[in-house]
Task: inverse folding
């Protein structure tokens, strides 16, 4: 395609949340976070192998496919991106066409990953959890159905950066610990945050790490303050996903989405 044809298609598919470079055309050059998610990728890319030949990758909340393209650039054999928004998937398929990679894209919620029926060497779960009403359920489902080895997790974080060493047990009357800066806290956002009605949660660093461990993902690297590279390991006693009954044709009502990657 010519540069003009690409630019015309980029405009028609906009607005874009991922700033991709498509043969001379930037998809989101005026992004409020700058060159996003490239700026985030450059902070943690060295935590993943340069050579992903033969590895399978699942990108959950793939948006317009920035990370799928990066995984393919490193030689990943099979890359699947899922997103609940057809709007973003149309962008991802066009970007893959221009960039010349064969990533697969499917319209699917994170809560339905069991329907994939396979496990992946690397699961990317970037910028999704805080947009979910049930983030711990999502992690439980990843452990149960799709994560085979490595989980790369990122979440917006707010609050204290201190992290308490968790006790094996606590006395019922020990209440002071809950007010300590390093206690895991998942701040609930009832209304909007940064103008986005899908920002439901803002964990502190301790909460992010505690939730990952509880769901069976042991962080072994933190290349960026919000990014944790984890190994799938034993999950907490009693940790398991639940499966609420939902008919195929049931309407799902959610708040309007903006910049969502779920």
Result:
């Amino acid at each position: 395609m010519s540069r003009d044809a690409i630019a015309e298609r980029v405009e028609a598919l906009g607005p874009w949340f991922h700033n991709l470079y498509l043969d001379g055309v930037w998809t989101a050059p005026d992004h409020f976070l700058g060159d996003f998610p490239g700026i985030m990728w450059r902070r943690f890319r060295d935590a993943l192998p340069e050579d992903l030949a033969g590895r399978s990758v699942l990108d959950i909340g793939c948006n317009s496919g920035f990370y799928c393209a990066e995984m393919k650039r490193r030689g990943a054999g099979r890359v699947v991106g899922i997103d609940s928004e057809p709007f973003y998937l149309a962008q991802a398929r066009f970007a893959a066409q221009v960039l010349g990679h064969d990533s697969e894209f499917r319209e699917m919620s994170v809560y339905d990953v069991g329907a994939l029926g396979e496990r992946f060497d690397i699961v990317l779960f970037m910028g999704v959890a805080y947009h979910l009403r049930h983030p711990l359920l999502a992690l439980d489902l990843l452990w149960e159905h799709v994560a085979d080895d490595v989980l790369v997790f990122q979440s917006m974080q707010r609050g204290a950066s201190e992290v308490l060493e968790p006790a094996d047990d606590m006395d019922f009357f020990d209440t002071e610990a809950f007010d300590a800066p390093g206690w895991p806290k998942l701040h609930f956002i009832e209304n909007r945050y940064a103008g986005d009605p899908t920002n439901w949660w803002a964990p502190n660093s301790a909460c992010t790490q505690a939730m990952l461990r509880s769901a069976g993902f042991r962080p072994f690297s933190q290349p960026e303050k919000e990014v944790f590279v984890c190994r799938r390991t034993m999950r907490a006693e009693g940790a398991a996903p639940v499966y609420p009954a939902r008919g195929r044709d049931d309407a799902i009502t959610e708040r309007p989405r903006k910049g969502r990657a779920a």
Notes: Residues 179 and 185 are 10 Å apart (CA to CA).
